[in-house]
Amino acid sequence: MTDFPFENRIWDSAETAPRAELERLQLDRLRGLVSRLADVPFYKNAFAEAGTSPEDIRSLDDLRRLPMTTKDDLREHYPLGFLAVGRDKLARIHGSSGTTGKPTFVAYTAADLELWANLCARFLVAGGLRPEHTAQIAFGYGLFTGGFGLHYGVEKVGAAIVPAAAGNTQRQLTLMCDLQTDVLVCTPSYALTIAEAAAAAGLEPRDLPPRFGHFGAEPWTEDMRREIESRLGLLAFNNYGLSEVIGPGVSGECALRDGMHVQEDHFLIECLDPDTLEPVAEGEQGELVITTLTKEAFPVLRYRTRDIARLDRSPCPCGRTTARMSRVVGRTDDMLIIRGVNVFPSQIEEALLHVEGTAPHYMIEVDRPGTLDVATVRVEVREQDFSDKMSQMQALRDRIDREIQSITGIRMSVELIEPQTLERFVGKAKRVIDHRVTDSS
Ligand code: ADP
Ligand code: ZN
User: What pLDDT sits at residue 97?
Assistant: First the structure.
């Protein structure tokens, strides 16, 4: 018998459909999608070039014969060249947050918004949200999909919402304590910022009302989860999504928190080698490529997310039959190549969280002063561990140095800095300054 930390509730019976039934539904929907896409100029051309037509889709494997879509394709058709319905059918337009350059827009019909709310409701309920709860949403409300996506998901479940929005951390604490919010929704880095502010205000984890946290929108590690949980006194859940696909709601953890269930009745997911674009072996790490099966306004075919993760198709004891994706290790465009070695910022986070005495606040700077890359990690030391003794600080620096080397395989120069000197984030954290890129462009 599996032990659930709380009641294992399922929002939609589709989440537990037998695989064969799910796959029939996917094939049916894929065929429908391909005929709908034939009216979108980009796909019409791509189908013509590849010589594919909707009748060629006889099995789910035929997906591999269909063309892919990249972020650059979306940019080339800026602002709304990928619309598959008339403007009169649109109900909302959002934008990606522009983490990697010029933002792109995505659009929704009323049916898309209804679907989106239900998909968010699925993972929220899986992660403990109940109609009697009050949820504090500390995500940005605006073009970014996080705020509105989660807002309507919570509303769908029937819980009360405190639409706090991101920022004003002192007020977040006041709202949390005065309104007794049960659930906190934000980015993991903002959760940590809130935790720090709580500690600075003399609040103990047990004084903080939220019992569940739903965090996403940026990569974070298992160590970071533990850190947030112990500092805020809650159970933290991971959820994943991207605006080009729908926003949050693509996948999320169940009570067992062993991978995020992908909502496969609405999204086909592939895990490919980013160089060869061939599927990786089952359970191996690769780039996620996602096809939206049911979205009306802005469907995408084989969208290259640039997110690196693993897929696990083994059954989960919670009863959901959908594949689970691992944490996102990083995005291919975040990946630093330092002296030929691939490094993700999440590896630095992992290293720092293994070393007692550092706050997981860091910034990685990479430069190439001569012919060799030089990486510097600037790390904040925790207040109570900051010392005037050179020898103590040197020992701490050596520990971090060794840990980074053991996780990434390369040496980086470690610079310890005083507590509270690095920028705090209310949305997605920015951890890398790559002078090799910025100084040459
Ligand atoms: P942008 O690409 O401008 O950041 P979005 O706001 O749509 O646009 O962000 C989507 C991206 O955020 C994903 O592609 C992924 O890289 C990241 N992301 C979202 N949720 C998670 C998560 N739970 N873990 C790791 N990364 C995530
Ligand atoms: Zn599960």
Answer: 63
Q: Would you place residue 440 in the very low, low, confident or very high pLDDT band (cuts 50, 70, 90)? A: very low
- The finding on whether 167 has its CB within 6 A of some atom of ligand 1 is no
Distance from C-alpha of 308 to C-alpha of 292, rounded to nearest angstrom: 19
In a domain, 200, yes or no: yes
- Cβ contact 23:58 at 8 Å: no
Q: Residue 56 falls within a domain, yes or no? A: no
| Ligand 1 midpoint to CA 122 (Å) | 19
The pLDDT tens digits of the residues spanning 117-141 come to 999 999 999 999 999 999 999 999 9
Q: What is the pLDDT of residues 215-273, one digit of tens each?
A: 999 999 999 999 999 999 999 999 999 999 999 999 999 999 999 999 999 999 999 99
Q: Which residue's CA is minimally distant from atom 8 of ligand 1?
A: 96
Measured in Å, residue 325 CA sits from the centre of ligand 2 at 11
Residue 101 Cβ < 6 Å to ligand 1:
no
For the Cβ of 99 lying below 6 angstroms from any atom of ligand 1, the answer is yes
* pLDDT of 403 over the 70 cut: yes
> How many domains does one find in the chain?
2
What pLDDT shows up at residue 439? 57
Q: From ligand 1's centre to the CA of 262, what distance in Å?
A: 15
pLDDT, residue 183, reads 98
Domain range enclosing 385: 336-440
Assess whether the C-beta atom of 216 lies below 6 angstroms from ligand 1: yes
Pocket test for ligand 1, best of 289, 307, 346, 430 (most atoms within 8 A of CB): 307
What share of residues in the chain are helix, strand, coil (percent, to 5)?
35, 25, 40
Q: Which residues, 6+ apart, have CB-to-CB distance to 297 below 8 Å?
A: 83, 84, 85, 89, 90, 107, 108, 109, 112
Task: List CB contacts of 95: < 8 A, sequence separation 6 or more.
Answer: 103, 104, 105, 106, 143, 144, 243
Q: How far is the CA of 290 from the centre of ligand 2 (A)?
A: 20
Q: What is the pLDDT of residues 286-324, one digit of tens each?
A: 999 999 999 999 999 999 999 999 999 999 999 999 999
What is the amino acid identity at position 180?
Q
261 alpha carbon – ligand 2 mean position (Å): 7
CATH number of the domain that 140 lies in? 3.40.50.12780
Residues in the chain: 441
Scan for tokens 């920022």, then name that residue.
167
